[in-house]
Amino acid sequence: MFSPGTSVTVEVPASSANLGPGFDSIGLALGITDTVQATVAGEGLQVWVAGHGEDTVPTDEGHLIWRSALAMWQRLGIEPPTGLELRCCNEVPHSRGLGSSAAAIVAGLATALALVRGRIDNPAALAMISDLAGEIEGHPDNASASVYGGLTVSWADDDGAGWRTVHPRVHPDVQAAVLLPETTLATDKARAALDDTVSLSAAASTAGRAALLVHALTTQPELLLPATRDWLHQEPRRASYPESMGVVDQLRARGLAATISGAGPAVLVLGTGDPGLDGDRLPAGWRVLRPGIAETGVRVVSRSAPATV
């Protein structure tokens, strides 16, 4: 199944999830990219990591890309290669709320599928990657955005058999900026701060704004400020990222559609035109990034196979 020398290179974008009221369901791909090159070679697993996480992520069988690749091969009923080299270039910051784990999972799944089938740019392949990524991640919002690019809205099948996603076209005037702190926050810690129940009024208010959010992002960007208001997750987690919530409060008071990006602590700002963020007094160590919206999701940049005699 795997010929020594077969190699694929995969690119996958970062993502921001929730965007305010779209908790665990709405995602947006950002123009920050991780790249993975996988080559069938030798015996065992070899992993090299450059960029974010190069000194902290596992470089053995515990590496998330490898574990995700194994999940894809298991789904396909295929034994993994006896030897694989992984070279990972990470541009997506880790533990900031920009979907680094989802990007790694999507990269691993796509790499595994590309090594077997060569191409992944068809609806069935992308749906398989997105569904399995959501299953591994536990929620589909970041992963679906990294798979499809642009804006994604995801939900679980009524029978719990998998995830489904649509990707409405973002209005061409909408731009995305990210305010990035030096501090990090683990997703599991952020999720642990949430209650198991919410009030009826919070649920109703958030549902209305989530619907408005899709409309604002696709049709009326001038409604982004009210459309990004949230009641479910940002306030309950304020103590987990007080500095970030201070930035959100400051920007929203100026009329800017600012939200916590995913589980935080990065802040996402949506709007049209230049929001003038460089003039804001941000906390020490914060940086302004303008990655834009990635219209393309995961893709195979190149694939090569050994010559046959």
UniProtKB/TrEMBL annotation:
<dbReference type="GO" id="GO:0005737">
    <property type="term" value="C:cytoplasm"/>
</dbReference>
<dbReference type="InterPro" id="IPR006204">
    <property type="entry name" value="GHMP_kinase_N_dom"/>
</dbReference>
<feature type="domain" description="GHMP kinase C-terminal">
    <location>
        <begin position="228"/>
        <end position="271"/>
    </location>
</feature>
<dbReference type="InterPro" id="IPR036554">
    <property type="entry name" value="GHMP_kinase_C_sf"/>
</dbReference>
<keyword id="KW-0418">Kinase</keyword>
<dbReference type="GO" id="GO:0005524">
    <property type="term" value="F:ATP binding"/>
</dbReference>
<dbReference type="InterPro" id="IPR000870">
    <property type="entry name" value="Homoserine_kinase"/>
</dbReference>
<dbReference type="InterPro" id="IPR014721">
    <property type="entry name" value="Ribsml_uS5_D2-typ_fold_subgr"/>
</dbReference>
<dbReference type="Pfam" id="PF08544">
    <property type="entry name" value="GHMP_kinases_C"/>
</dbReference>
<keyword id="KW-0808">Transferase</keyword>
<feature type="domain" description="GHMP kinase N-terminal">
    <location>
        <begin position="64"/>
        <end position="150"/>
    </location>
</feature>
<comment type="pathway">
    <text>Amino-acid biosynthesis; L-threonine biosynthesis; L-threonine from L-aspartate: step 4/5.</text>
</comment>
<protein>
    <recommendedName>
        <fullName>Homoserine kinase</fullName>
        <ecNumber>2.7.1.39</ecNumber>
    </recommendedName>
</protein>
<keyword id="KW-0791">Threonine biosynthesis</keyword>
<dbReference type="GO" id="GO:0004413">
    <property type="term" value="F:homoserine kinase activity"/>
</dbReference>
<dbReference type="InterPro" id="IPR020568">
    <property type="entry name" value="Ribosomal_Su5_D2-typ_SF"/>
</dbReference>
<dbReference type="GO" id="GO:0009088">
    <property type="term" value="P:threonine biosynthetic process"/>
</dbReference>
<dbReference type="InterPro" id="IPR006203">
    <property type="entry name" value="GHMP_knse_ATP-bd_CS"/>
</dbReference>
<comment type="function">
    <text>Catalyzes the ATP-dependent phosphorylation of L-homoserine to L-homoserine phosphate.</text>
</comment>
<keyword id="KW-0963">Cytoplasm</keyword>
<comment type="similarity">
    <text>Belongs to the GHMP kinase family. Homoserine kinase subfamily.</text>
</comment>
<keyword id="KW-0547">Nucleotide-binding</keyword>
<keyword id="KW-0067">ATP-binding</keyword>
<dbReference type="Pfam" id="PF00288">
    <property type="entry name" value="GHMP_kinases_N"/>
</dbReference>
<feature type="binding site">
    <location>
        <begin position="93"/>
        <end position="103"/>
    </location>
    <ligand>
        <name>ATP</name>
    </ligand>
</feature>
<dbReference type="InterPro" id="IPR013750">
    <property type="entry name" value="GHMP_kinase_C_dom"/>
</dbReference>
<keyword id="KW-0028">Amino-acid biosynthesis</keyword>
